[in-house]
């Protein structure tokens, strides 16, 4: 079925939705299907995104995307339900893995800049992690981070080996050449996310001279090859107005991006600086701009913090995802550089059972305001309590500053955010990633 609709997705979309009605048995799958039907009948911006996907992606990318949807919504449900019955909690939806910390750039304020770079994760361990997550948890979506993933050419062979798995790759975009683009076009199951910090001035100031030009050229190559890709950006006090502007998002559309991920600067990694964090009013304004843009533009925009209501709060601790770093440490979140288990000596299933992670999952969403989902910057006293009780080890030098030297600044930030976002929450002035009226579903 995936190959059939990959060949003529737009023409057969209505038939596809009809056929999926017979396959979608699980309540979650039926809810997702109802939403897609609503986008279709109301010609929502996400429907326009679907049309873009059908027109602009090459055959391999459309086929891989359809297989991922079928796996995630339908085919892996039994595996996930069996895990829940055996363990008493849901398995993660996705897994983030950093198979290398090597990088050809040295970006200012890099969140991963303090991890050891000496050794890559070996392929045997990497394949074991992916196979275990697929087999025991029904995970079909993996995010590959770093470091710079494209310093490892062997990862392309990994993506080919796991051809029924979908990989999102966070990359600085400077190492993707013509040969790599050709290989990605053949694979179809790999979606690069290229990092920018704004336009040329902002990006080159943080990443180095000519980086912006190289990344934009890479986007054009990916676009022309029909590859699914997007952009990622980190909002800080200086660039937030630029990266959330219609000009910037429109520019990303012109270059062929299908989605964009917005992260907020957190004082971790290389040279952590609380003064770079968004001011509370900037965070709320970013939320409003992103909500408006995705109502009208055919691109999927996700704000990792402000979209907490979409997923019921924090997704860390294995509730929705985990991060396995290059050394094999199982971290609750890519921004929480602490661990109690390592996949070299424990399975993922065993790591998820540890009280350090189980307690996180149990307590979410805290007081209910999921616009303040984060235990590191929105409610830092919560993570400090976990740290005191379970004594996780820092996974690189300096990580413990979140529970040490930066506590005063983080508490001050959290109080400022609460003053604004508690009022927003009480007034109901917030929106999920895509709002679908209940009465029309």
UniProtKB/TrEMBL annotation:
Q: Has keyword DNA-binding?
A: no
Q: Which Pfam families match?
A: Radical_SAM (PF04055), SPASM (PF13186)
Q: Which GO terms describe its molecular function?
A: catalytic activity; iron-sulfur cluster binding; metal ion binding
Q: Where does the record place the Radical SAM core domain?
A: 89-307
List keywords of the entry alphabetically: Iron, Iron-sulfur, Metal-binding, S-adenosyl-L-methionine
- Write down the superkingdom of origin: Bacteria
Name under which the protein is recorded: Radical SAM core domain-containing protein
């Amino acid at each position: 079925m995936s190959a059939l609709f990959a060949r003529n997705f737009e023409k057969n979309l209505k038939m596809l939705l009809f056929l999926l009605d017979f396959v979608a048995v699980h309540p979650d799958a039926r809810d997702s299907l109802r939403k897609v039907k609503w986008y279709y009948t109301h010609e929502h911006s996400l429907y326009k995104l679907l049309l873009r996907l059908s027109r602009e992606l090459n055959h391999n990318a459309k086929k891989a995307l359809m297989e991922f949807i079928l796996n995630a919504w339908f085919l892996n449900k039994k595996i996930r339900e069996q895990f829940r019955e055996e363990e008493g909690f849901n398995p993660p939806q996705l897994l983030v893995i950093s198979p290398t910390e090597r990088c050809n750039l040295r970006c200012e304020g890099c969140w991963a800049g303090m991890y050891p770079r000496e050794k890559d994760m070996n392929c045997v361990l990497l394949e074991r992690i992916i196979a275990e997550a697929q087999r025991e948890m029904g995970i079909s979506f993996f995010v590959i981070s770093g470091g710079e993933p494209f310093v490892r050419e062997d990862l392309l062979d990994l993506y080919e080996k796991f051809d029924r798995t979908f990989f999102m790759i966070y990359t600085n975009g400077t190492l993707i050449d013509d040969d790599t683009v050709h290989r990605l076009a053949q694979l179809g199951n790999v979606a690069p996310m290229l990092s920018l910090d704004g336009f040329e001035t902002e990006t080159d100031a943080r990443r180095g001279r000519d980086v912006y030009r190289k990344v934009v050229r890479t986007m054009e190559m990916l676009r022309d090859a029909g590859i699914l890709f997007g952009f990622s950006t980190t909002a800080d006090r200086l660039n937030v107005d630029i990266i959330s502007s219609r000009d910037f998002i429109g520019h990303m559309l012109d270059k062929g991006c299908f989605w964009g991920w917005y992260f907020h600067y957190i004082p971790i990694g290389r040279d952590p600086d609380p003064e770079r964090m968004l001011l509370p009013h900037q965070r709320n304004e970013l939320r409003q701009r992103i909500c408006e843009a995705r109502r009208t533009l055919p691109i999927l925009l996700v704000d990792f913090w402000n979209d907490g209501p979409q997923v019921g709060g924090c997704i860390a601790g294995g509730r929705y995802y985990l991060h396995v770093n290059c050394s094999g440490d199982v971290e609750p979140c890519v921004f929480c550089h602490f661990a109690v288990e390592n996949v070299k000596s424990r399975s993922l299933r065993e790591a998820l059972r540890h009280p350090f992670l189980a307690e996180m999952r149990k307590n979410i969403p805290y007081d209910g305001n999921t616009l303040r989902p984060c235990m590191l910057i929105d409610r830092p006293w919560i993570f400090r309590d976990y740290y005191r009780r379970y004594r996780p080890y820092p996974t690189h030098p300096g990580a413990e500053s979140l529970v040490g030297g930066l506590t005063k600044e983080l508490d001050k930030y959290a109080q400022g955010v609460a003053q604004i976002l508690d009022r927003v929450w009480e007034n109901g002035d917030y929106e999920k990633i895509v709002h679908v009226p209940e009465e029309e579903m």
